[in-house]
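User: My collaborator sent over this chain with a note saying "see what the structure looks like." That's all I know about it. Can you take a look?
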Amino acid sequence: MKTDEKIQNYFPSIDGLRGIACLIVVFTHNFGFTHFFFFGWIGVDLFFVISGFLITRILLQTKDQPNYFRNFYLKRILRIFPLYYLTLAFFFIIAPHIKNFPADIGPYVDNQVWFWTYLQNWLLIFNYPGGSTIIQHFWSLAVEEQFYLIWPWIVLLLKKPKWLLIFAGALLLAVIATRFTLWNLKIRDLNYMGLYTFTRIDGICVGSMLAVIHYMKSKFFDNYFPMIVLSLAGLNFIFYFFNKPNQFTYPYLAIVGYTTFAVLFALLIHEIVQQKNKVLDFFLQIGLLRFLGKVSYSFYVFHWPVYLIFYDSFDAQVRKMISGSEAMIALITSILLTIAGLIAAIASYYGIEKHFLKLKKNL
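Assistant: Without extra context I'll predict from the sequence alone. Here is the result:
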């Protein structure tokens, strides 16, 4: 049900949750050799649920206000573009002229138009360029940007929140059905794993649905919390017994997993927004987690390039100073490089991003 009451859009605990999501991704990349962070993909899905929730919440609040499109797009541009395009300028304009640059970025340079236009997720699916993975993680930034571009129009055109809820739910079901159908078609030379990985919008859909439910002041999550959890468990059991006779050939994440985890994250965000769980709020409002959430965008952007560019030099220095096992040397090197990536993120936030964020207040 629509209300004129001011909607709260900032929740300190969500900063902490964003910090956890970023750490999951960073640890998966920088400490992947330990095999402890095989679940790192959930960090991106958590980011997507948070984004879908907050962006849809803001759009619902402002859809009847003047300059709806202008204000939204300008705020997104000020938040996202400066760091993103400065990073691309480094890799596509400066790095190719650096002698012995420690990463093969030639294929990316040859296909750079996809990155300048925020379409790199489609490049990685249908025409994977090869070379280093140094900016491959930018695929998620493309998915988010495509969401920012299209979703404000959908929110305005559908007008009524219940139609937006139905649309997001139908879109989610359509995505799952498409994955299932494509798998059964067994199309030759189709990059299935790339298609499923780089186009997943489950978290965005679920986060958007959560925002609509809150906007309508529905008690759905409060009233049916146990049923939702049991339904998710049942869905996973059904998929298991369906998949077993098929020699487990159907991809779990693409058909059930991404959506299951997205709903679980939505339940977590619902608890955060209710602000009734003191233990959860206390944990997520730990200063370090909230700070990491604040710099999570730049940390996400920088952590992997810093790791790949400087790994050999850091590894050599660590070997000079420490006599230990290969595992110990790799661990110390990765810790140092993670700290270096965080320092780069902090410098970016305070040296670049914060100046543009101040301009948002004038909109």
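A starting point for your reply to your collaborator: The CA atoms of residues 76 and 148 lie 8 Å apart.
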